[in-house]
């Protein structure tokens, strides 16, 4: 046996515990976290021996792989099978090991609850960088963004979490306000829609360079309302419905039965403070997968 392949048992256990913490903070489920960690190690052992030897920091490689698997699970709709979609695996060799994570926050449960309603990329940016100390370039690679884009994602996540920790919104209130926004959009009522938005509301449009979309945030209740009404203008074959998006009620726009936009609403003090509109076809791919048929009783 090559003694270079032997690792102290304490280090092995700490490594697995670290991966479980990463996956738990990303997904919020101990069972899912275990599944992610098991898949992470399977990917490690599927690497050729020579490739594993080139990895200077196995723990960093494993953490990055676990983060990528979690992100892929987060972007799938509830009915989708995560095993059908390949998860990200980091390039080789990997950078130096990040500093150990510090999770001793008094309001950790509140933060975890708020994370459930963050879009996947924002959640990954906050958890992997702010909680677990991964470097910005590593996290940017995991979420598939440039470093400046990653910085914006992390900043938006921090702002959202500050709002939620100070003024949490109940699922019932989220649902009621989301349905009111839908009704205002369907009726084309700009005044009603603007009244549901915070005066300093901000809307972000993510076209990913694949469709024409605003590349800068739209600010102000009336400006955001006008932008949404233009985007969601009722036309033949266009529908707008409420759906669970990242654990909270959001909006899904379809054109000719194809999901064309997924909209997340951030709420504080009974008003919509931020609107995140995903138009990038690549990110909507999983939403357009056919749902499995309902099981037929024998």
UniProtKB/TrEMBL annotation:
Species name: Streptomyces chiangmaiensis
UniProt keyword Glycoprotein, yes or no: no
RNA polymerase sigma-70 region domain: residues covered: 15-74
Domain of life from the UniProt record: Bacteria
Protein family per UniProt: Belongs to the sigma-70 factor family. ECF subfamily.
Keywords: Sigma factor, Transcription, Transcription regulation
Keyword Repeat: no
InterPro entries: ECF_Sigma-70_Domain, NTF2-like_dom_sf, RNA_pol_sigma70_r2, RNA_pol_sigma70_r4_t2, RNA_pol_sigma_r2, RNA_pol_sigma_r3/r4-like, WH-like_DNA-bd_sf
RNA polymerase sigma factor 70 region 4 type domain span: 110-158
Protein name: Sigma factor-like helix-turn-helix DNA-binding protein
Subunit structure of this chain's protein: Interacts transiently with the RNA polymerase catalytic core formed by RpoA, RpoB, RpoC and RpoZ (2 alpha, 1 beta, 1 beta' and 1 omega subunit) to form the RNA polymerase holoenzyme that can initiate transcription.
SUPFAM superfamilies: NTF2-like, Sigma2 domain of RNA polymerase sigma factors, Sigma3 and sigma4 domains of RNA polymerase sigma factors
Pfam family, one: Sigma70_r2
